[in-house]
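WARN retry 2 of 3 for item q-0093 after timeout on previous attempt; input resubmitted unchanged.
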Amino acid sequence: MRALKSRISFRALLTALLAIVCAGGARAQALGGSQPQGIRLQVTETAGIQRSQAPVLAGVPLPQNSGVVDITAFDLRDSNGEPIPFNARVLARWNRPTDDPSAPIKWLALTFATDLQARSKATFELVQSPTAAPTAKIAWRGPDGIHVDTGALGFRVANEGGGLFENLRIDMNGDRRLDVRLIGDSGAELQWPGPTGLEAIPLRARLLSSGPAEAIVRLEAQPTGNSAARLLVWLHAYRNRPWLRTVVRACGVPTNDVVRLRIPVETLGDPLRVALGLSVGDAESDWFPGESFPLDARSVARMVRQDADAVWSAQLDGQSFWTDESVAWAEVSALGWGVTVGALPGSDSSVREISLAGAGDITVDITPVGNGCATVELFLQFRGGRAGDVREFRAFSSPLVATAETTWYHDSLGLGPAGLGVVEAAAADAAMRADGDWDPAFGLLASWLGSQGNEAAWLQAAAQRVAAGADEGFGLRLRGPLLYFWLTGDPRVEEALAAAAGALLRNNDRDANPWLPVAHLDMWEFTGSPVHLQAAQARLRTVAIGLHAAACGPDAAKAGLVLEALGRYAWARRLTQRADRQAEQALQQLLDQMLSCPAASLLADGFAYGALLTDDTGRRSAYMHAAESSLRAFALPGIEREDAGLRLRTGRTYAWLQARLGEDAPRRGQ
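OK item q-0093 returned
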């Protein structure tokens, strides 16, 4: 590696870096200027699917002194400079809780829609605009419940004690008029195991987002007689789209029992046809629905899971007519309308059966796996017209997430001092199969950002890991789930992180686990609560004393985490303009001690934080040299699965600091 050549003094550098946080740098400062100059966002279609008004998610970091405290100050513009409807929500504020309206916004979630050709890109710009005009909402709360009207479908959700949704109407001819009712006042419902079998469970509803691009309704129930049981549902509806993204999470379901989603469709007296199963391959031509066949009023068609893998049996009135690998997907249609039900691949392992009755009932049976919880992401489409379009489900299965330029994540410091320019494809590919000891989700997401959104497989693998963690508990590996939440605004992950924050504060373990202060620092960034910063400080006292006593002990992983956590804590205190000189001195003493220890890759970021925070020129040079030497430990010919998450995590602060000094990020092993 090349030796680091300091072009400016580190005192000047640190002052400049803190100014970047406060003023956002030259690029970020333009957000607060009088002329609109925005943040460029790029959407990349990598799945080979032509998109039509497809939803796009984006998480956008803002610098601390951008002057933005209110989401209504923005416009989102397409590549022609035309404003488009979008949702905006505050995910984090600088050094304060999210509900503090006076604090600058740190992370902003956007949802919007775009048309996009297969394997193409589209650009958008988020700009401050004092003339930002409000756009009509697609959901509102009335005295009789929450109403949703996307232009393609509409329905009502009772405020309290009702079912999932009711009075669902669709647009039959594309004129944006909801002229045909497919579900009546009895409504779709969720059924829970009761004393006499499955019973409809009353739900409480809350409107999380009213549009204009996306409406989100959250429903919750606590089944009586089962204190461990909990049922959560999120309904996502999108402007001008005829489908619902429905996430069902059920915990505390008795073993071998099911939770049933029941949708009573009014058949309108039309003769029905059904199709079961969806074969999936890599190419668009490999996606096709099963052959449709007539369904009379007395018959029932079913897809029944055969094992833990994606092997299903298609049945008509109890007689199987094929058994094969498939996606959990089925549709019922008539001459002028159709209803499709599909489970997102990766979440469909909890779906036991999909049933379509000729009398109109559609049911989905969900059963818990492993830990007594089941989470399923369902595609529910209610459309005018007979033939379904499998591309809608394909698009649902490969959601679009926009990214900003890599330099923006660095300039805004939304991720702190973490470099995203180092992308190691082999390590990221290995991390998709790795265990979770080193939070591979974080490394995968950082690598995906570094690829400018081109490596969709890394994003999908991280999303699956985060979803599994939301079901099972994130433990202390929280940075990956936190970054995923910031990039997507997923409300299910938000609730899981909030639960993790509460559990962390209740953790009374007195052992010197270095992951504990790291987790508290992650939760400080999530909640903005000083309680987590104080808890990190208390935990660091214990683990730092242990590291000092161990000297050059054999546990390099523990030493690396302690040094990284101590550096992150000291940096965080400087951001709050309440520097902790004792913590900085402790970091310096530990790093001086570690200079004589054998180089280990995990020490690189601790040394980088030390170089960032110290005023001593000699120490600074020694710390940077030690960081470089530490990273050489990754100059290995192969990458083992268990090392992949670690490899993707290590060295990002060092790479960011080098970039700030005008150097290129190092290539490990050179």
